[in-house]
Structures are given as C-alpha cells and as structure tokens.
Predict the structure.
Amino acid sequence: MTLWARTQQLDSTVLRQINSLYGPHFPIEVRHYFAGWIESQPWDQIDPDNPTQSSHAKVLAETLISRLEGKAQELAHQGREDTFLLRLRFEEIAQHFQMIYLRDPLALIRVVRHCLQTESQLVEQSTPGSQGASNFADVAAAHQQVAKAFDELVWMAQETETDLKQLQQSQEYFVIQYQEMCKLQAMVQRAQSHPDESVRKQHEMYAKKKAEMEVFLSKEAENLLAKRNVLVEKFQKSLQCLASVQHIILDEELMKWRQAQQLANSGGPPPGPLDMLQSWCEGLAELIWRNRQQIRQVEMLKAQLPIQGSGGVLLEELTQNIASLLSTLVTSTFIIEKQPPQVLKTQTKFVASVRLLVGGKLNVHMNPPEVVASIVNEKQARALLSSEVDPTLDAMQTSGDIINNRRVRSVRWWCLLSCLSW
C-alpha cells in the first residue's frame, strides 16, 4: 500500500494536519493525482543543499511539469463539465512551477522531501501498534482542545471588534452632540447680553435646549462608560483564555517536543515534525496581536474623551499582560531545531539550526535579525537561563570560538519558516 493510500485512511484530525502541510508550494492536488509517480522518485538521493546536483533536480522538475501539462490536456480532451475547474487548476500549478522550480529546481527537492517526511511521520504516529500510536490519542485530544480554544478566541475577538466599532461610533456621536451643546452655550450668552429685546427673549428658549442637551449628554456619558467597562471585562476574559491556550502550547506540547529531542540525542527516535506547533504558535501570535491592537484602540478612545471611572487602571493592566504574553511567546518559540553534537571537538565542523515558530507572523523577513552562536560552559548557561547576566557576547566571556558563528535569519518561502543553519 502506498504512503498516500495509508494517509487517506487516517483520522480527520490528522487529515487536517496533512491538508495544512500542502500549500501553494506543493498543492495537495498534485500529491493526490500523481501519488504513485511522486513516491517512486529518488527525492532522498538528491541533496537540496548541493548545487552540483541541480541538473538531476531539474530533470525531476521538468518531468513533473510535463505531467501536469499532460493531465490538463487530457482533461481538456475529455470535455467534461465536472473536470473543467480541475483542468484550470493543473494549468495554473504548471505555470507556477515553471516560474519557481525551473529557476531553482533544488527547492522542489527540498519541498517534496519535507512534505513526504512529515506525512510519513504522521502516518507512523497514528498507525495502531507503532511506537507513536500510544501517544496519538493524547496528541489528538490536545489538538482538539487547542482548536476549540482558537475557535472561541476568534469568536471573542470578533465580538470585541464589533463592540469596539459601536463604542467608537457612540463616542463620535457624543462629541458631535457636545459641540452642538457648546454652540447653544454661546448662543445663550450672546442672547443674554444682546441689546435687542427680541433677541433677549430667545434666551429662555436657548437655555431650555441647553439644559435638555446637558441631561442627554450626561446619560450618553454614562452609556459610554458602561460600554467601555463591558469591553474591558471582555478583554480580561480573552486574555485569560489566551494565557490558558499559550500554557498548553508552550508549557505542555512544545515541552514534549523538547523532551523528545533530548531523547533523540541519546539514541531515541527523532522528534515529530514542528509544523503543527508552528501553526498553533502563529495562530496564537495573530490572536494576541489582534487583541493588543484592540486594547490600544480603547486606550486611544479613552485619551480622546476622558470620562471619570472608565477603568483606566484595568486598561493599563491589560496592556502589560498582553505585552507579557507576546514577549513570552516570542522568546519561548525560538528553538534549536537541530542540536549540535553533545561533544564538540576542536577543529571540527558541526551542523546546527535554529527556528522561530512565530517568525512568519512577525514579518522578520522585512528586517532579518542576525543570530550569533557561541560556546559557553555549564555555569554560564545556568546564569543565562536564570537571567543573571545580560545575554550578549559583550556582556560575558565565551568558553570557545566558532568560525562563521554569525548568520542572518532567512525565511524559507516554501514552508514559511523563519530559520537559519550553521
């Protein structure tokens, strides 16, 4: 049975992970209709980081594009209405692959290897009797819990966004009415001191309208205050939910992956793919940022129209809490994806890579930071973990030198990873 045939028999929860694995870089339609050919090709025998193998990769890229074009022509000759959209889809994919993979055929090797390896790991983890099957139920339960929390958070963010728009409209209406009241106030003062008796008689009419307007504005101010306080309470609930799901993702699921990585360094099986964790972290970053922007808008509205008792202290706490959540997420998702050897010898090359799981949402590709690798002893490492020293090279002495230890973080467009390797 082919890998793709086994994949199609998986639980719907895992199939959602498979679906998220394939995107514009390698659409799932290509994986489905050309499964046999894809799995029969020597993807693992070509090193995507070796430019000398580019010619072999180009042959595979040209063959795949030819098959896509052939499939589109076959569907066109059939002339069936139910395959019209599929034909257009294959033509679009073929054109996209020509633009991307004929210029950089090794990128296709890297993409397909990543997809097949991740898919194979997911199949093995969910197969009854396999080593990862005993933990699959827990993984599925965690996935459902996080997915449910995300759905709830999205709904809460939409609700607060609607409330925020209504608050803004109410405040704008209040300001307009307040300006009208100020005009009435000026008219009352002018009528009261006007030498013309007929104008002075209008004073009572203007004064009555002004009094009515003051009563109206007083009630509107109370309504604005109530809307602000309700919105602040909703933000408090949202932040509690965000903190809860962040605890599940970072302190439970990501910690499990780190533990599996430690076991792999001691001869155990390799840890599972990071794709699902990355999608969770990016979704969480997006929700935190969305709530942060909404809280800032409430602060701006409050600054534009201060009303006594409008929860200013609570807003400051919310701002600090949301900033803390975002800071924790960014620092905790900067991970060492590929660990260097546990014992480093002098004058010896080694490979290591780091990855920022929220880099895609933070747009780090717009201003890629430089990451520096250095050797520290156990005492220095413990001091870094406890934040007893400033974690910069200038603030502490390293325990060794690494040649070419500086790298600028890059973004792999085919899988939206913010990562780098030494």
